[in-house]
Amino acid sequence: MKEINPKAEHVLMVSSDIPGITGEMVDWVVNTDMQTDLDVTTISSSARSWKKRYPGCKRTWTHLKDMEVCGET
């Protein structure tokens, strides 16, 4: 990214297969992340919300203690 803008300090990478993403969601992630010193952030969605919004979707789910999530990367 430095070739595009040598003064850039941050990079936002988004996968292109997120059909429900909105500008407000991107703004929220950027504004929230800029308040931290984290190097990397990944966004996950619950399997329940994906299956409700996109019935029959083919995703890989990660099983956590209290829910299944789908990484957006």
Characterise the protein shown here:
This protein has helices at 23-33, 47-53, and strands spanning 44-46, 62-63, 68-71. It has a 3-stranded antiparallel sheet. It is elongated. The protein contains 2 helices and 3 strands. It is an alpha+beta fold. It is 25% helix and 12% strand. The two termini are 19 Å apart. The mean pLDDT is 78.
Please state the overall shape, judged from the principal axes of the Cα atoms.
Answer: elongated
Helix-strand pattern: HEHEE
Round the mean pLDDT to the nearest integer and report it: 78
Structural class: alpha+beta
Percent strand equals 5-15%
* Largest beta-sheet details: 3 strands, antiparallel
Distance between the termini: 19 Å
Strand order of the largest sheet: 1-3-2
Q: What integer value in Å does the Rg equal?
A: 15 Å
Strands, count: 3
Helix content: 10-25%
Q: Would you identify the regions where 5 or more consecutive residues have pLDDT less than 50?
A: none
Helix count from the secondary structure assignment: 2
SSE blueprint and pairings:
Elements: H1 23-33, E1 44-46, H2 47-53, E2 62-63, E3 68-71
Antiparallel strand pairs: 1-3, 2-3
Quickly describe the structure.
25% of the residues lie in helices and 12% in strands.
Question: Any descriptors?
Answer:
3-stranded antiparallel beta sheet, 3 strands, alpha+beta, about 70 residues, 2 helices
